[in-house]
TrEMBL record:
<protein>
    <recommendedName>
        <fullName>NADH dehydrogenase [ubiquinone] 1 alpha subcomplex subunit 4</fullName>
    </recommendedName>
</protein>
<keyword id="KW-1133">Transmembrane helix</keyword>
<dbReference type="InterPro" id="IPR010530">
    <property type="entry name" value="B12D"/>
</dbReference>
<dbReference type="Pfam" id="PF06522">
    <property type="entry name" value="B12D"/>
</dbReference>
<feature type="transmembrane region" description="Helical">
    <location>
        <begin position="17"/>
        <end position="37"/>
    </location>
</feature>
<keyword id="KW-0812">Transmembrane</keyword>
<keyword id="KW-0472">Membrane</keyword>
Length: 83
């Protein structure tokens, strides 16, 4: 059974146009992996330790806004429910 072209190092040397494709796909996979790990470790909605109660009080005063030029969110009350 013949080998697919561009899947081994020797056949990749013959087909140099495939190298940028592999680099772009590899960079995309690494970027997706990094972003998923970042969401799993930095997102306030994720709780890794299962001990204790889940509390919204820790995040009541924090603001997660991407862009808000004219509203001062430090003076507004949080819409999070109070338990």
């Amino acid at each position: 059974m013949p080998e697919l072209q561009g899947t081994s190092l020797q056949s990749l040397k013959k087909h140099k146009a495939l190298i940028p494709l592999y680099v772009c796909v590899g960079a995309g996979c690494l970027g997706a992996l990094f972003y998923s790990l970042r969401l799993a470790t930095r997102n306030p909605d994720v709780q890794w330790n299962r001990t204790g109660e889940i509390s919204n009080e820790e995040f009541r005063t924090k603001q997660y806004k991407f862009y808000s030029p004219r509203v001062d969110y430090s003076k507004l009350e949080s819409p999070a429910p109070k338990y």
